[in-house]
Amino acid sequence: MLYLEQSVFKIILLSKNKQIHDFLSEIIHSAKFENASINILHAYSVEECKTIVVNNSDTALLFIDSENTINLRSVNNELFIVTYIRDVLKNKSLQVILRNNFSGKYTPDKIIMKYEINQFIYNNLDSSMTLSSIFASLKAFENIEASEKGKKGLEQVIKSSSNIFEIHSLHKFAVGMLNQLSLIIKSGSNLPFLSTSCFVASKKGNHFYILLGRGRFSSHINENVFDVISTKTMKEFKTVVSAKKNKYSRDHFILYFNNNSDYQMLIYFEKLKKLPKSSVTIIDLFCKNMNIAFDNVCLNHELESTQKEIIFTLGEISEVRSHETGHHVKRVAEYSNLLALRYGLTQREAEIIKLASPMHDVGKLAIPDSILNKPASLTNEEFEVMKTHSKIGYDMLKSSNRKLMKSAAIIALEHHERFDGTGYPYGLSGNDIHIYGRITSIADVFDALGTKRVYKDAWSLNKILLHFRREKGRQFDPKLIEIFFENLDKILTIRRTFSD
Ligand SMILES: [Fe+2]
Ligand SMILES: [Fe+2]
Question: Which of 175, 214, 223, 375 is most solvent-facing, going by the fewest CB within 10 Å?
Answer without folding.
Answer: 375
